[in-house]
Amino acid sequence: MISTFAPMAAELQSWWWVNGDAALRTADLPVLQPNQLLIDVQCCAIVPIDQRAVHRIHQAGQVPALGYDIAGTVRRGGSAVTRFLEGDEIIAVLPPDTPRGGYGHLAISWEANCVPKPAGLDGVACVAALPGGVLAY
Question: How far is the C-alpha of 131 from the C-alpha of 137, rounded, in Å?
Fold first, then answer.
């Protein structure tokens, strides 16, 4: 179980792709699902899947959030989270249909999509290695 940091921001801000242009959007902070983490984003990679996902989802008439490969610190977790505690440094791959991407100060990810950040590496090195690591896996 993870306890909650206080005080908690009441909203999320992140970049979205809207009508062919990037736009900053604000959304209310959602209630976490039991297996989700709220993450303070330290860095987010800009990778080719961002461009492909934006094109594919935008063509389907949806407005996609931007940023899928992130490094950050766990702010809090849902009631069923068991592998991480508040303050743990992690790296995560957000799913392409994420309602809130990594191009913002907070992100939400499923616990299964997160791993501990290796000691001795900064977040930038970790997110830079994610696309190759996922491909190799």
Answer: 10
In angstroms, the first-to-last Cα distance of the chain is: 29
Q: What predicted TM-score, i.e. pTM, was given to this entire model?
A: 0.75
Q: Whose CA is closest to 68, among 83, 58, 53?
A: 53
3 state DSSP class of 134: helix
* Residues above pLDDT 90, as percent of the chain: 34
Q: Tell me how far apart the alpha carbons of residues 43 and 35 are, in angstroms, rounded to a whole number.
A: 22
Per-residue burial over 48-57, b if 16 or more Cβ lie within 10 Å, else e, is: ebbeebbeeb
Burial label, 2 (beta-carbon count in 10 A; 0-12, 13-18, 19+): buried
Which residues, 6+ apart, have CB-to-CB distance to 21 below 8 Å?
Answer: none
Which residue matches tokens 């799913």? 95
> In terms of pLDDT, which residue wins out, 34 or 26?
34
Amino acid at 92: A
Distance from C-alpha of 29 to C-alpha of 35, rounded to nearest angstrom: 16
pLDDT tens digit string along 64-76? Answer: 667 789 999 999 9
